[in-house]
């Protein structure tokens, strides 16, 4: 949730457009989920665009779900769900390990 909030800050605080629906879109031709996008001019938001796509007129919405699709490519809804659950498990394990090691600085044995 923290990662999603941090990644979404530009859209949440209206630095870039925030469309009503930011969830991935389903492509009926391929049966796969793809990142949803918002339109812009080719010279706008250059700091958000990939190095090879400076002339792009669409930028993916800023959610962890869309980021996952950007990095891993289009995938089925089932595969996307499993991937996001895996990410959630990794983040929870990291949080528990961090809590275990940091607790010694705040609590007596």
UniProtKB/TrEMBL annotation:
Subcellular localization: Endomembrane system
Keyword ATP-binding annotated: no
Source species, domain of life: Eukaryota
Segment forming the signal sequence: none
Gene Ontology terms for molecular function: glycosyltransferase activity; metal ion binding; UDP-N-acetylglucosamine-dolichyl-phosphate N-acetylglucosaminephosphotransferase activity
One annotated Gene Ontology cellular component of this protein: endomembrane system
Main location: membrane
UniProt-listed InterPro entries: GPT
Ranges annotated as spanning the membrane: 79-102
Annotated keywords: Glycosyltransferase, Magnesium, Membrane, Metal-binding, Transferase, Transmembrane, Transmembrane helix
Membrane topology: Multi-pass membrane protein
Gene Ontology terms: biological process: dolichol-linked oligosaccharide biosynthetic process
Matches recorded under PANTHER family: UDP-N-ACETYLGLUCOSAMINE--DOLICHYL-PHOSPHATE N-ACETYLGLUCOSAMINEPHOSPHOTRANSFERASE
Protein's recorded name: UDP-N-acetylglucosamine--dolichyl-phosphate N-acetylglucosaminephosphotransferase
Biological source species: Attheya septentrionalis
Organism classification: Eukaryota, Sar, Stramenopiles, Ochrophyta, Bacillariophyta
């Amino acid at each position: 949730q923290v990662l999603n909030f941090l990644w979404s800050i530009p859209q949440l605080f209206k630095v870039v457009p925030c469309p009503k629906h930011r969830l991935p879109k389903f492509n009926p031709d391929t049966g796969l989920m793809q990142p949803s996008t918002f339109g812009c001019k080719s010279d706008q938001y250059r700091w958000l665009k990939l190095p090879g796509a400076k002339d792009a007129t669409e930028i993916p919405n800023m959610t962890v779900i869309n980021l996952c699709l950007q990095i891993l490519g289009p995938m089925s809804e089932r595969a996307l769900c499993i991937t996001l659950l895996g990410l959630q498990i990794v983040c929870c394990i990291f949080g528990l390990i961090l809590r275990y090691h940091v607790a010694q600085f705040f609590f007596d044995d």
